[in-house]
């Protein structure tokens, strides 16, 4: 029978290395759990103790509601702390310079602008910055609540965003998006009628079957969309099936917007041991190394994908 502690996780990482990392973070969870329970107990008992005798039942209900709200808030804060405990350890080997989660992920001015936008609210869950093979990158996860017309419920989208400085110079822009099928013909017609300069390109059959490639006077299509880069984009499409992704080369940057089913570490809980989060840590490792896979593809592979 195979020992699960020595198995390989979905993305190729050694289970024992992940478990060691998670065991090192377990005391933080226990400390956070103890502090949370003490805070909730103190808040509950304080409210009940101050209640008039004739209103004790009502105040007890109010205290219970307040305790539940504190517990939910603590669970959310713990998710941010759990990621912050693991991500720096993973990212150090890959040139990560900084990692911030929760309210510290972006500055206050940007946070307020995101939360109170006219187009809907946005919450950046975490953000990573680094430099790999002399190429700067940024990576973040966010939740977006998009406004809809006619007072319909807001659409909730979880999004991973990658920004990379392109190591070669180019003019114009190049846009990639998931293949749109029949709608692409309508899109082509509308673009010609409106006089837009963007043109659809054919790259190779395998790539064209998954992505639409749109060029706006880009002079370096072959330099940017190398065989290695196309393979990496196809790998991303396989890793995130049925997801509509968008990418663009423009103004010296490559940007990728990738909707994801849920935020990483979404299952983290104060009452869940860190060692039960091996698959979440594996998923976090994959996301933190997405920029590096793209940079290797742009610069040329060293010795295969990150491991």
Describe this structure in words.
- The two termini are 26 Å apart.
- The chain contains nine helices and nine strands.
- The model is unreliable at 1-5 (pLDDT under 50).
- It is globular and about 80 Å long.
- The protein has a domain at 12-169 and 252-299.
- A nine-stranded antiparallel beta sheet has the order 1-2-3-4-9-8-5-7-6.
- The protein is α+β, with helices and mostly antiparallel strands and 307 residues long.
- 23% of the residues are buried.
Short description:
The chain has helices at 15-49, 56-91, 108-115, 183-194, 205-208, 221-224, 227-239, 278-288, 290-299; strands at 96-101, 120-132, 135-146, 155-165, 173-178, 199-201, 211-216, 246-250, 253-260. With 307 residues, the chain is α+β, with helices and mostly antiparallel strands. It has a domain at 12-169 and 252-299.
Write the layout of secondary structure elements.
Layout: H1 15-49, H2 56-91, E1 96-101, H3 108-115, E2 120-132, E3 135-146, E4 155-165, E5 173-178, H4 183-194, E6 199-201, H5 205-208, E7 211-216, H6 221-224, H7 227-239, E8 246-250, E9 253-260, H8 278-288, H9 290-299
Antiparallel strand pairs: 1-2, 2-3, 3-4, 4-9, 5-7, 5-8, 6-7, 8-9
Helix pairs in contact: 1-2, 2-8, 7-9
């Amino acid at each position: 029978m195979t020992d699960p502690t020595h198995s390989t996780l979905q993305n190729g990482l050694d289970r024992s290395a992940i478990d060691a990392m998670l065991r090192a973070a377990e005391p933080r969870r226990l400390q956070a759990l103890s502090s949370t329970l003490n805070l909730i107990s103190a808040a509950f008992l304080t409210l009940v103790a101050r209640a008039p005798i004739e209103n004790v039942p009502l105040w007890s209900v109010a205290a219970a509601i307040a305790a539940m709200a504190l517990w939910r808030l603590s669970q959310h804060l713990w998710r941010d702390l759990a990621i912050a405990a693991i991500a720096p350890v993973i990212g150090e080997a890959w040139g990560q310079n900084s990692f911030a989660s929760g309210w510290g992920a972006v500055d206050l001015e940007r946070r307020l602008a995101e939360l109170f936008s006219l187009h809907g609210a946005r919450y950046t869950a975490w953000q990573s910055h680094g430099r790999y093979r002399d190429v700067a990158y940024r990576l973040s996860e966010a939740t977006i609540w998009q406004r809809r017309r006619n007072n319909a419920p807001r659409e909730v989208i979880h999004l991973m965003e990658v920004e990379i400085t392109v190591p070669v110079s180019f003019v114009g822009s190049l846009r990639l998006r998931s293949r749109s099928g029949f709608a692409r013909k309508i899109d082509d017609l509308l673009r010609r009628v409106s006089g837009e300069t963007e043109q659809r390109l054919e790259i190779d059959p395998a790539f064209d079957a998954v992505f639409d490639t749109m060029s706006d006077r880009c002079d370096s299509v072959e330099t940017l969309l190398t065989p290695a880069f196309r393979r990496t984009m196809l790998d991303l499409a396989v890793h995130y099936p049925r997801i509509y992704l968008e990418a663009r080369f423009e103004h010296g940057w490559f940007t990728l917007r990738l909707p994801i089913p849920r935020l990483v570490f979404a299952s983290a809980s104060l009452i869940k041991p860190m060692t039960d989060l091996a698959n979440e840590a594996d998923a976090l490792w994959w996301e933190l190394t997405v920029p590096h896979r793209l940079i290797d593809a742009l610069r040329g592979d060293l010795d295969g994908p990150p491991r």
